[in-house]
Amino acid sequence: MKVEATEVDGRRVYSVRAFNQGIAHWLSRLPTLWVEGEITELRRQQRWQSVFFTLKDPDDGSCLSVQMPRGQFDALRLELVDGERVHVFGRPELYEQRGELRLKALTIERFGLGAHLAALERLKAKLAGEGLFDQSRKRALPRFPRLIGLVTGNDAAAKRDVLTGIVQRFPPANVLVAETYVQGPRAPVAISTAIGDLCRRGVDVVVLARGGGSFEDLLPFSDERVVRAVSSCPVPIVSAVGHEQDTPLCDLAADVRASTPTAAARLVVPDLTELRSRVTQLRERLHRGAHVTTERHVRRTEAAHERLRRAPLLALERRRARLDTLQARLGALSPVATLERGYAIVRRGGDVVRSSAQVAPGDELSVLVAEGTFGARVE
User: Edge-to-edge strand order for the sheet containing 364-368?
Assistant: First the structure.
């Protein structure tokens, strides 16, 4: 392929298109080769015809863009994630429209965990052995926090998402924002310091928020200093770092993990509209309960009043019946009743005669019958 130049004032001038075509032509002469590096910024969408990712040199951070047809990538079934070290076989090419150099991948082989991922695995195992990720350490979030602490980046979308979510759900909430570095070498110390500062200022809960990013961007949230600061935080802490598929180590140490910063807002404050609706329902239930209770007491009072009104009559009836019974029993035992049945009481002087041996012929006796007395002489 011959690239033509234009003569301009004695100069051979190439257009950008011609220049890129020439470079692309020369690159196409290079042989296919293997390139080793760590995968970062892996991007794959069902609608895309290609898969894109970046190969990063773990020693000096050099990067190379890689493109691979999606069908070939899916056929490998490698389930690659950011941080893995791989060998990529392909050829260099130039994307002429933008003048971007990239490697067109023909196949990929997993080489092993990248240096960062291997270090994270070792750190994860170490901290897990110390119990920093134990479920028993997790604390419940306060229902109505008086002051919410937010650790986030300056002018970050994550900060906007959290604040907007909190204000929309619970406008009276008070939020204390600590803006700090959330990526780069200074981030771990800055994040740890911000968490401590918020706790000293009396917050009831802390939200650690950062939006999505590459594997390297989120590395500060897996730094040992940050993980220990999260674990030792004296108040409950919510980790809302990256997207749902991202799992930095601070997620494991936090009391609660939120899939997104917006989800974190839903966790730390209640919904004021729902609270008002709940209060209204409770007020109605209390009103109905009070009405039912009042009616029940009124019925009980009326029943007691009726019982009290009838009690004297019932008591009098019971006492009259008892007196009648006693009278009948006393009447049955009365000597008069015996006399009325034809019996008599015989006395000799003042003594009652109970035996014939008590009298002698000629003795004067007094005989008591049911109606009156009369005298008698013993013969």
Answer: 351-352, 345-348, 364-368, 373-377
Q: What is the DSSP secondary structure assignment for residue 77, as one 8-state letter?
A: -
Q: What backbone phi and psi angles, to 5 degrees, belong to 94?
A: -115, 125
End-to-end Cα distance, the chain? 181
Per-block mean pLDDT, blocks of 10 residues, the chain (379 long): 72 84 83 90 87 89 91 84 87 87 89 67 90 93 94 84 92 93 90 95 95 79 94 95 82 93 92 89 90 89 85 85 84 73 82 83 84 86
- Burial (Cβ within 10 Å: 0-12, 13-18, ≥19) of residue 83: buried
State the Cα–Cα distance between residues 238 and 197, nearest whole angstrom.
Answer: 16
Eight-class DSSP state of 75: H
User: CATH number of the domain at 6-113, please?
Assistant: 2.40.50.140
Backbone angles phi, psi at 99, to 5 degrees: 70, 35
DSSP 362-374: T-EEEEE-SS-EE
- The whole-angstrom separation of Cα 341 and Cα 128 is 109
Helices (H), 141-186: 157-169
Does the global pTM surpass 0.85?
Answer: no
Q: Which two tokens stand for residue 161?
A: 């998402």
Which CATH superfamily includes the segment(s) 145-272? Response regulator (3.40.50.2300)
Q: Which amino acid is at 185?
A: P
Name which of 213, 160, 137 is nearest 182 in CA terms. 213
Q: What are the boundaries of each domain within the chain?
A: 6-113, 145-272, 336-377
